[in-house]
Amino acid sequence: MYSFLNDYSEGAHPQILEALNQTNLIQTVGYGKDEYCHLAQKVIKERIHNEQADVHFLVGGTQTNMLMISYALKHYQAVIACDEGHIQVHETGAVEGAGHKILTRPHVHGKVTCQMIEDICQQHTDEHMVQPRMVYISQTTELGTYYTRDELKALYEVTRKYDLYLFLDGARLGSALVLPDAPTLEEIAQYVDAFYIGGTKMGALFGEALVIIHDDLKPQFRYHMKNKGAMLAKGRLLGIQFYELFKDHLYEDIGLHENRMADMIRQALIKKGIPLYEPSATNQIFVDLPQNALEAIEKEFMVTHMGAIPGGERVRIVTSWATSQEAVLSFVSLIENL
Amino acid sequence: MYSFLNDYSEGAHPQILEALNQTNLIQTVGYGKDEYCHLAQKVIKERIHNEQADVHFLVGGTQTNMLMISYALKHYQAVIACDEGHIQVHETGAVEGAGHKILTRPHVHGKVTCQMIEDICQQHTDEHMVQPRMVYISQTTELGTYYTRDELKALYEVTRKYDLYLFLDGARLGSALVLPDAPTLEEIAQYVDAFYIGGTKMGALFGEALVIIHDDLKPQFRYHMKNKGAMLAKGRLLGIQFYELFKDHLYEDIGLHENRMADMIRQALIKKGIPLYEPSATNQIFVDLPQNALEAIEKEFMVTHMGAIPGGERVRIVTSWATSQEAVLSFVSLIENL
Amino acid sequence: MYSFLNDYSEGAHPQILEALNQTNLIQTVGYGKDEYCHLAQKVIKERIHNEQADVHFLVGGTQTNMLMISYALKHYQAVIACDEGHIQVHETGAVEGAGHKILTRPHVHGKVTCQMIEDICQQHTDEHMVQPRMVYISQTTELGTYYTRDELKALYEVTRKYDLYLFLDGARLGSALVLPDAPTLEEIAQYVDAFYIGGTKMGALFGEALVIIHDDLKPQFRYHMKNKGAMLAKGRLLGIQFYELFKDHLYEDIGLHENRMADMIRQALIKKGIPLYEPSATNQIFVDLPQNALEAIEKEFMVTHMGAIPGGERVRIVTSWATSQEAVLSFVSLIENL
Amino acid sequence: MYSFLNDYSEGAHPQILEALNQTNLIQTVGYGKDEYCHLAQKVIKERIHNEQADVHFLVGGTQTNMLMISYALKHYQAVIACDEGHIQVHETGAVEGAGHKILTRPHVHGKVTCQMIEDICQQHTDEHMVQPRMVYISQTTELGTYYTRDELKALYEVTRKYDLYLFLDGARLGSALVLPDAPTLEEIAQYVDAFYIGGTKMGALFGEALVIIHDDLKPQFRYHMKNKGAMLAKGRLLGIQFYELFKDHLYEDIGLHENRMADMIRQALIKKGIPLYEPSATNQIFVDLPQNALEAIEKEFMVTHMGAIPGGERVRIVTSWATSQEAVLSFVSLIENL
Question: Do D233 and A60 touch (CB under 8 A)?
């Protein structure tokens, strides 16, 4: 059985693993103050053309979201997200567990819109209600869609109007970075106050690089990390991995590969007349499968069930850095022969 | 200007104030271990026919909700409410500030329904999502409606099915207690795991009596109160007030008075053909006022604006223990002459 | 049995109770935005000659300490106190419950010293340790001693050196304010960043007036109060009481009375050769009583046991606004006749 | 410069790294539900002869301590530790950040004693004080000492007397496991309620295995992990590493190696007449170095400064799985030739 369940089914991209092997016996200081972390911070800051940014390496996505949001907000302040936002649905209440409310509105193609932000801000003007103070978005979204550079810029502007921080969760950022109308890394850094570059779902063993742009979000962030149990002793492991990902565009190469694999699957489904649920261009495909198609697929492939639909099931298919063209061709052939 | 803004515009019911005056110089021990608190606990437990219940006296409603919910839940557990629930909208994120998510669905006449609970529980079965563990309702609701005894019993049963605590916020409980198809105090105590009897909005200077029925919610609750800064030094003040409210049915008398005052206003509005927004039988009236009616009223009375409607404004009118029949007759006369 | 157990055994000073009676039926807005709160804020700001200060009225001392400390600190920051500090010993972990460590050193006559602060700050310079950010002191202390104006000024200076906020808990402030070498209210406001004026132990039914001097501690504090369940619906009750306490020096009169009552007891004990444990000039007396003296006293008076000593018991005797000269004379006579 | 700064200066033990390489392309499910985690859980449960234990894999020590303590305690409850405990000094307030007070007493050779626990419990019997509910110890301690099996058993018994959980932090457990009078893994599992087996400081890239013995500490712990951002997506990485450490006693082999390296250094120091600060038998050496010795050492080796002493400096020297005999011999020779 070949798994299309997610993009963290395997270990690390071979180039990353090789770097971990090569550096294994070198002695460094701990907690992210080593030369590999410095190198990785340097290449990321060069890529965004912002020497003043702070870059911190963390282990996982929920941890990173919770840390950034809880640093930015007081307990009487809230973060705005859409109802399908990862922090709202799939983090077991981590943001609320840290003491902060999430204000939501129904998503539009998986995304937060300027209108939602306007509405929420206009309705929360009273000291008996939480005060909106941050907007959380993810690139790509939970439905595989993405924000264009114009959409991001518009969100940035509305957050300026209401004195909100804009925070972008980039767990799957690589898949969007390589799309022509999506914002580049440098553009993202211009239009958000903080964002993270996902490693776990982009070929690293683990790790996320949190990039903080807004000066108010920077002071003593490392204390905050330690206080929440999020400072890795062998911090070098994160530096080594992110240096590999960014020293020569491995990150974008992985994004291109996974999108290309996903496109082959998408084309086969469309050609067969099977409707995509939320048409996407990234490495996540949401599709409404008739029961017979589902059964045929699940003889050879694992896919994620999202819920029953009339006559079948909505499923998610995910490609990754490790997805083999062989597996994809085999899947495509199966679809063609349904 | 006469205020119909809320039910906490004045001090205390004269009988309560008199009791505070009479006992002022008597020495007692502190922190709610005095004889007045014991007397008040005794009369409340007699009224619900449950000697095993624990009764704690707290100062305010948000405090009481936050204390009970944070005691009952782990941080990975959530409380279910409707989207208009007081804890969801009007407590400045107190529940989330204490570390707990609120799961909501759109209200039905201001109320939580069994179907909402079923839906939420069936969608939250995965360790990446919060675990529903409590249902929060209020009697009366934020829209002035109330749960009938059958509705409460049905909610109780669905909470048993999903292993949820049922918690009732009775900030305005007196207004419902005197309605024939609403549950009595004894019935409430049978069909919830914890509830509070509001004092602040029912004629006390301040204070809420939290009644804990479920044994798992009882141990060391006083430590929890102290830890959250919610244990009043001169706890006697709460005991004295609740003893007055419950030793001779003053609580119900106040409920009857405020409903009677509200009924007179409701009749006048209906007779005049002005539509009630959410028809109610309690001390809160929500009504869609044409602009001219609003303007005429606001020359003499203060009412709460709830939001613009075509051609006017939705407003809330609230009666209380202190609402004078004179003021109500004057208001009624104004409506008749519109 | 007459109680010298504490200074919150009775209700309110008659003048305060009278004001509550007089204003009972006047309608006001809620949540501390009424005219009585404004009046009380005005007289307090006049007394400290600081129009820029913010004054908030809260219900109790633990609540006030927890609110101010949790507003001022991030979770990786700590508050410095002595090992006998109220927040360290007698608040059931409220400060830690809100997420903040207390760093302590052994007290010197119940007080924090400059040397303690220096030591702690010099030992906490590493991101694996909490960062000291505030100093907590109380006037008077848990042992009935007090900070002189010179001591307070010295603490202020050391807190400037290490970028620490200085916060003064004035639960029993009135007893110190009337001593000649203790800082006046105006001086306190010059040498701290925030302090509270105790009402509960100084003749109010309940209530503490938090005075915030440092601009960084002011923004949106009312949201923080509401989020922690600490905003009283009938906020007027606090305004009315503090206006009475400060419009004509009732606060200082109460301090003088309780100190005078305590002095009479102190003189009798000293004359009898019974050693005071921590000599004080305020309304708390700590004394090491021989067993026979304890037994004789406890036939007529209640005192607080602090722990066994060889041949007897250390006890605390507290006077208050309500302590009658008659009771004190009777106690003195008992001591003389031991 | 060769580093004796700590036991996490290098990557992973070669056998562990090899296992990560070998399994890299195998697809597994995420979040610790894969077959490698199951294997690792199985071998650990066999080693402690307790099939009912729960084993969870976490990323770091501070995270593990904070998770276990915050799961076990309510906010009004406290954990007992000694003043040198890792949670008290070196975790940037993580335990308090999660809402819990640490009650401390001065250490005895780096350890908690039964007497400390008795004292603390007898002094905390009042609802105005936190309630002791857990004891935290570490094996080995912050001073390189360790609890014998008799000492552990005695602590276990006193915790039973006062209804306290006993929790053992085993960040450096391997160094103690191989000492004859220290408790074995099986004995530890008999005499504590929860403990963790350190990986980060024992040859893993990262990771700690939390073993929960007491049934009350088990339910829904994985929800708690996720809520705190502590559930690793590629959980397999932890399973693979702990399986290598425990399938064939690699863990104990590493402990033996690091102790043997430390012994050689200790012997050289003692022979030279340089006093060990806290004599130990484990991989941490604390020694009071004269200034000339320190200077000579620091031309070739890095050691941790613990604080000035008359005429020199107290330093810590740490050996690890990666410490080479060559480096140790060179260090020994340097000491002999001082």
Answer: yes
Q: C253: which residues sit within 8 A by CB, 6+ positions away?
A: none
For tokens 């850094």, name the residue. A189
Q: Say whether residue C90 is in contact with chain D using an 8 A CB cutoff.
A: yes
Chain A contact set for D65 (CB, 8 A): 229
**ipTM of model:** 0.97
Task: Write out chain C residues lying below 8 Å of D77, CB-based.
Answer: 93
Out of B25, B226, B232, closest to residue C59 by CB: B232
B228·C97 Cβ contact <8 A: yes
From B71's Cα to the closest Cα of chain C, the distance in A is 13
Closest residue to C97, CB basis, from D75, D127, D128: D75
To the nearest whole angstrom, how far is the Cα of C30 from the nearest Cα of chain A? 12
Q: Are strands A165-170 and A301-302 parallel, antiparallel or unpaired?
A: unpaired
Separation of alpha carbons A155 and A150, rounded Å: 9
Q: Are residues D144 and D264 in the same domain?
A: no
Q: Along the 338 residues of chain D, how does pLDDT read in single tens digits?
A: 999 999 999 999 999 999 999 999 999 999 999 999 999 999 999 999 999 999 999 999 999 999 999 999 999 999 999 999 999 999 999 999 999 999 999 999 999 999 999 999 999 999 999 999 999 999 999 999 999 999 999 999 999 999 999 999 999 999 999 999 999 999 999 999 999 999 999 999 999 999 999 999 999 999 999 999 999 999 999 999 999 999 999 999 999 999 999 999 999 999 999 989 988 899 999 999 999 999 999 999 999 999 999 999 999 999 999 999 999 999 999 999 98
Do B227 and B121 lie in one domain? The reply is yes
Other beta carbons less than 10 A from residue C311's beta carbon: 10
Residues making up chain B, counted from first to last: 338
- Where would I find the beta strands (DSSP E) of chain C? 2-3, 54-58, 77-82, 101-105, 131-138, 165-170, 194-198, 208-212, 284-290, 301-302, 304-309, 312-318
Neighbour tally for A180: CB within 10 Å: 7
> How many domains does chain A fold into?
2
CATH number of residue D153's parent domain: 3.40.640.10
Q: Which residue of D has its CA nearest to A5?
A: D29
Kind and range of the H or E run holding D38: helix D35-47
Nearest-angstrom CA–CA distance, A101 and A94: 10
Instruction: Tell me whether residues A93 and B128 touch, CB distance under 8 A.
Output: no
A73: nearest CA partner in chain B? B97
Query: Is residue A160 domain-shared with residue A274, that is, in the same domain?
Result: no
Give me the domain span that covers residue A262: 2-8+251-336
A93 vs B: CB within 8 A: yes
Establish if D5 touches chain C: CB-CB under 8 angstroms.
no
Contacts of D257 (CB under 8 A, 6+ apart): D321, D323
> Searching chain C, which residue's CA lies closest to the CA of residue A33?
C127
Q: In this structure, what CATH number is given to the domain that contains residue A305? A: 3.90.1150.10
- Interface touch D76/B131, C-beta < 8 Å: no
Please tell me whether residues C149 and C286 are part of one structural domain. no
Full DSSP string of C173-186: HHHHHTSTTSPPHH
C199 near B CB under 8 A: no
Q: Which residues contact B260 (CB under 8 A, 6 or more apart)?
A: none
Question: Within a 10 A sphere around the Cβ of D256, how many other Cβ atoms?
Answer: 16
Question: Which of residues C228, C249, C270 is at a domain's end?
Answer: C249
